[in-house]
Amino acid sequence: MKVSYKWLKEYIDLDIPAKDLAEKIERSSVEVDSVDKPSEGLKKIVVGQILSLEDHPDSDHLHVCQIDVGEDEPIQIVCGAPNVEKGKKVIVALSGARIADNIKIKKSKMRGIQSNGMLCALDEIGFPKDVVPKEWADGIYFLPDDAKNGDDVYSYIGMDDELIDLDVTPNRGDMLSIYGTLHDLSAIYNKHVNYDDVTVKETSGKKTSDQVNSDVDENIAPIYKNRIVNNVNIKSSPLWLQIRLWNAGIKPINNIIDITNYVMLKFGQPMHAYDLDKLNGNKVTVRNAKKGEKITTLGEDNLNLDEKDIIIADDRPIALAGVIGGLDTSITKETKNVLFECAVFDPIKVRKMARKHVIHTEASQRFERGVNHSGLDEAMENACQMSNELANGDVCDDILDGTEYKISPVVVEITLTKINHILGTHLSYEQVQDIFERLGFIVHRNDDSFSVTVPVRRGDIHIDADLIEEVARIYGYDNLPSTLPTTTMTTGKLQPKQQLMRDSRHILEGLGLTHAISYALTTSEKANMFMMQNSFETNLSYPMTNDHETLRMNLLTGLLDDIAYNKARNVSDVALYEQGRVFYKDTKDQVKPSEIEHIAGAISGSLISSNWDENNKEVDFYQIKGIVNKYLETIGFNGQIDYVSNAEYPEMHPGRTADIMIHGHYVGFVGEVHPNIAKQFKINDTYVFDLNLDSLNDLPKSDQSYESISKYPSISRDIALLVDDNITNSDIVKVIEKRGGAFLKEVNIFDVYNGEHVPEGKKSMAYNLVFQNKRDTLVDDDVNKVMDKIQRNLEKEFDVEVR
C-alpha cells in the first residue's frame, strides 16, 4: 500500500524526513519497498494558460497555441490534443524540460511552425496510465482555475507528496490503511493522533429498511450492513480526493465510487456502492452462487460461477462478495439513489474465489488479511457524510443490519518476568505498561502480571508471544541488549545421516554418475510409479500447473524426465543420480505425509565413450548392479548384500529386475525400465536403481579401517563346477566364503557355460579363488586343505560335480 506522507501529517505531528520515517516503519512494523516523490526527475514543468489557439495551416488536427507561462511574453506551442481549449490552465513542459522517462523537451518546428514546448497529459509527466481518470485519458489535463501561471505544477496535482510503499505481511492487515498506520506511528513516536470526528447529517427523511431488505448467510458475511443515500448528483470528485486516490494507485471514477475507495484507504474497510434503481426487486441476498449462474464484473469479465463462489444477489448475481462488483448495478452518471454496502466477509472464501477467477483487487487484499470488525459503523458514517457533502445526497435515517456479529476483544495474560527473560531486558512495570497503552491496549496490573485487552482492530495478537513482540518492536529492536548465548561449546560435525548423504554423493560421482535435482511436485500418474511401498497421494489444493500437483513418491520419474530432456537434445549417454525426499501417506486422511530420504540413479547409453582402442558398451544389468554393489560396500555393507529377482514391479522389466536385501531387509531395487515405460518417456533402454537412504542409515554397518598391503605373495586357484540350473552364483559364493577360512581374500566367477557337453538342466560355473597370509608366506598344503574343504561342502550342499 502506498501511504501519503502529507496525509499522515494531517493527523500526527511528524517532523522527520519521509525516508527516515520509512526506515523507522521498516524496523518497527512492516517492510517498506520504496519511498518515492512523483516529481523527482522532472524539471521545468509549469502552469500555463491558453490565451489563444488557431488551426495549423498544414494539419487537420494540430493547433497553434499562445500560452501564458508567467513570463513577459506568451510562448508558442503546437499541440495535437483533441480537448485543447482557450482559457484553460494546462500543464506546460518548457523548452529544456524533463518529463517522464527522462525525455527532454526541445524547441522544434512542427510542419513548419515553431513550437517552444509541450502541453502535457498526466501520463506524459509520470502518472501510470491505469490511474489517469477516463475523462483525461485521451487528452491534456486541465489544472484548477486558481492555479498561478508560471508556478511548478507539482503541488497542484499531488506530485510534491512523498509516497511510502508498505509491503504489508498477511498478519498485519490493519496496516493497509491510513488509520492503521497512524495507530502504529502513534505508539512508535509516542505522539497524539487527531482522528476525524464525523457526524452524519441524516437529511433524507426516509429509512433504508423501507426501501430495501437483506437476507445474509452469516457463514459468508458475519457482519453485513447497508445504508441508502437518495438524490445523489454523480460527477467528478474534487481534485483533493482524486489526488488521494491516484497517489495510492487507484483511478478516480466519480464521486460516489471515489468515496468508497477513499474510505477503504482511510480505514482499511472496503465498501461497495450499488445503483438502487437497478436492483431487481428490493431484496439483497448474500449467498453461495448456483451452478450455471453468470456475472459481468466491473472489469467487464464474463464469469461462470459455481457453488463455491460467494455472491451478492437480487434475483441474479450483482457482485462477487469481497472481490468486485457487477456491471449491471454499477454507479453511472444517471444514478440517483445509492445503496452502500459495508461488510466483513469470510477471508478464506474470498481468497479462494479471487484466486480461482484470477481477480485480485484492493478490496480482496484487505478481506483476505482480515478487516476491523469494530470499524464498520465509522466507515459507513464517513462514506454517507461525504456523499452528502460531495454529491448533495440525502442520507437515510438508519443502517440496515443484515447480520451483526459482536466480536469480543482478546485478553492475554503475561508477566513482566517472562517479557524481560525473553528479550534479555530489564524493563520496569511502568515502561511495559506505557508501551501497551501507547498501542491502544487496555492494561490491568496484578503483582508481576499484566492482563492486556487487545482492541479488535489488532486481529494478529492472541498469545503472550505476540505481546512480547509488540514490546520489542515499540521499545526498539536496536535497544535490545546484545548477548552471546550461554552454552557448552562443542566441535561442529555432521550427524551420521548427514555424513551418509555426503558420502553417497561422493561415491556415486566417483562411479561416473552426475548429480541431478528434480522437482518434488509431479503428476499423479508419475507419483504412483516405481513405488517401494503402498501409499496414498499428497495433492496440492491449488497447484500452479497440472504437471506439478502431487508430491512425488519416487525419485526415478524425475530422473527419467531428465534423460528424456537430454535425449531430445541428442545427448544419448546419460548417467544421473539424485538424493532427495519422497512423501508417503499411510492413510488418505493423514494431513502431513512422512518424508523419507531416498537415493536413486538412472543410466542410459554408455558410461564409457568410444576411443581408438575400445568401443563403447551399452549399459546392462550387471554394470548398474556393480555400481550399486560398490556403493553399498563402500558405505559399510561388504559381504551383507543379496539380490533377489522380482518380476512384480509394473514399471520394471520382469526378467531384469532384482530387490536389494541387506541382512534380509528390503532397501530398494535395481534393474531395467520396462520397454513400455521407456517408450512412454521417449527414452532408450535405461537401467535404474532406487534405495531407501533412511533404511541404509539405520542398518548396522561395518566400520572401515586401514589395512596395509601384504608383502607376502598370494596363491590363486581355479575350480569349475557342474551344478543344477536353479543354483545361483550367490548361493555358491556364500558357501565358498563360509568355508574358505581366514586366508581367502577374493572369489571371482570367470565363466558360465550351458551348452554342448553339459547335461540338460545343468550349467558349468568356474571360479577363481585368491588366498593370502598377511603375516607369513602361504604354502600349497594349507591352500589344498582349504580347497578340499570347500569342495566337500559344495558337494554336500548342492550335489555339485567338480570338473
Automatic annotation (TrEMBL):
Localization (cell): Cytoplasm
Domain FDX-ACB: 710-803
Positions of the TRNA-binding domain: 39-154
Domain of life, source organism: Bacteria
Keyword tags: Aminoacyl-tRNA synthetase, ATP-binding, Cytoplasm, Ligase, Magnesium, Metal-binding, Nucleotide-binding, Protein biosynthesis, RNA-binding, tRNA-binding
Cofactor: Mg(2+)
EC number: 6.1.1.20
Domain called B5: residue spans: 407-482
GO molecular function: phenylalanine-tRNA ligase activity
Gene3D superfamilies per record: 3.30.56.10, Bira Bifunctional Protein, Domain 2 (3.30.930.10), Ferrodoxin-fold anticodon-binding domain (3.30.70.380), Nucleic acid-binding proteins (2.40.50.140), Phenylalanyl-trna Synthetase, Chain B, domain 3 (3.50.40.10)
Reactions this protein catalyses: tRNA(Phe) + L-phenylalanine + ATP = L-phenylalanyl-tRNA(Phe) + AMP + diphosphate + H(+)
Cofactor note: Binds 2 magnesium ions per tetramer.
Pfam family, one: tRNA_synthFbeta
Binding site for Mg(2+): 460, 466, 469-470
InterPro entries for this protein: aa-tRNA-synth_II/BPL/LPL, B3/B4_tRNA-bd, DNA-bd_dom_put_sf, Fdx_antiC-bd, Fdx_antiC-bd_sf, NA-bd_OB-fold, Phe-tRNA-ligase_IIc_bsu, Phe-tRNA-ligase_IIc_bsu_bact
Major localization listed first in the record, in broad terms: cytoplasm
PANTHER family for this protein: PHENYLALANINE--TRNA LIGASE BETA SUBUNIT (PTHR10947:SF0), PHENYLALANYL-TRNA SYNTHETASE BETA CHAIN AND LEUCINE-RICH REPEAT-CONTAINING PROTEIN 47 (PTHR10947)
Subunit structure comment from the entry: Tetramer of two alpha and two beta subunits.
Family, as annotated: Belongs to the phenylalanyl-tRNA synthetase beta subunit family. Type 1 subfamily.
NCBIfam families: pheT_bact (TIGR00472), YtpR (NF045760)
Protein name: Phenylalanine--tRNA ligase beta subunit
Organism: Apilactobacillus apisilvae
